[in-house]
User: Which sequence fits this backbone?
């Protein structure tokens, strides 16, 4: 017994000594991030993943400070949108991975130069409290005086999904900057991410919210008085891409993480977590409409990267931040 115990202890020490540790920066919710990491580590027990969670824009601020200090910590990024990753790609901060298993995925879900890869489809639509608000069909129907102070809006200065949404709608004739100016006139103050906005709508503090689809659908399924509307003008969408930092010293292990989240097992986890998979061969989660029934608003990520500074400045001017 003592010999077996000693051998087991020696094996554990040896395994720990040989384990690779990856640093992951993610904007996934803590629960979802832990599920993703646990599932990966179950398949690759010799690779440990330490992760830090924050809003995408805040993570980019942290990363930029690390870049300036010459002390970049993450090996991997798993964040909300392609705009921030496009900026990092432009600065030659991302590792190209031409062998990534993109299979038959739509080319719109990954970078043509293979530096970042979408892992799911998340739309941003209109949530409403079913007890104190009426369903609408258009974004502009929200701009009614009776909704003054009653619309929860995540900030694009914090949330990657909100930033992607802003870039997607700012040039749409029927929405555009006029929609955001209309929100400002209603005393709406965008702040934080999707979580606080969802909570505000679910508890009745706000009648409406501009929120990511899965958050609303999960809340509805759990009994919250909340539902989701896909406006006729269309909705923005993000793919929550994964990318490997070019400076990583653990490229092989990082590529295994990318392989996992793009694999059938990884995509089945996406569905289990309540999101639409990028794998068209897999079904939609319960409660989700079919993608073909939703009008998706395209976004030019290259244009978004080029105009991002001005876009943020315009947003700040409108809301006086």
Assistant:
């Amino acid at each position: 017994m003592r010999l077996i115990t000693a051998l087991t202890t020696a094996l554990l020490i040896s395994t720990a000594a040989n384990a690779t540790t990856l640093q992951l920066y993610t904007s996934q919710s803590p629960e979802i991030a832990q599920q993703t990491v646990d599932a990966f580590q179950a398949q690759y027990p010799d690779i440990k993943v330490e992760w830090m969670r924050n809003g995408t824009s805040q993570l980019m601020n942290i990363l930029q400070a690390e870049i300036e200090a010459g002390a970049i910590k993450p090996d991997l990024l798993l964040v909300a949108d392609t705009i921030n990753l496009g900026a990092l790609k432009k600065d030659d901060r991302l590792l190209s991975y031409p062998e990534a298993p993109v299979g038959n995925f739509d080319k719109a879900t990954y970078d043509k130069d293979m530096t970042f890869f979408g892992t799911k489809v998340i739309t941003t639509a209109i949530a409403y409290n079913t007890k104190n608000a009426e369903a609408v069909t258009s974004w502009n129907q929200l701009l009614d005086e009776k909704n003054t102070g009653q619309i929860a809006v995540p900030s694009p200065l914090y949330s990657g999904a909100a930033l992607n949404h802003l870039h997607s709608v700012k040039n749409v004739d029927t929405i555009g900057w006029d929609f955001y100016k209309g929100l400002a006139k209603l005393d709406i103050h965008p702040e934080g991410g999707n979580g606080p906005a969802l909570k505000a709508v679910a508890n009745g503090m706000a009648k409406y919210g501009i929120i990511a689809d899965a958050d609303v659908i999960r809340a509805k399924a759990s009994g919250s008085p909340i539902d989701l509307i896909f406006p006729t003008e269309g909705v923005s969408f993000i793919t929550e891409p994964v990318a490997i930092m070019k400076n990583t010293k653990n490229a092989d292990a990082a590529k295994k993480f990318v392989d996992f989240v793009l694999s059938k097992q990884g995509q089945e986890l996406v569905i289990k977590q309540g999101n639409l998979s990028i794998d068209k061969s897999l079904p939609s989660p319960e409660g989700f409409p079919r993608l073909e029934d939703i009008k998706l608003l395209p976004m030019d990520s290259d244009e978004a990267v080029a105009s991002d500074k001005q876009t943020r400045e315009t947003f700040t001017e409108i809301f006086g931040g």
Remarks:
- The radius of gyration is 21 Å.
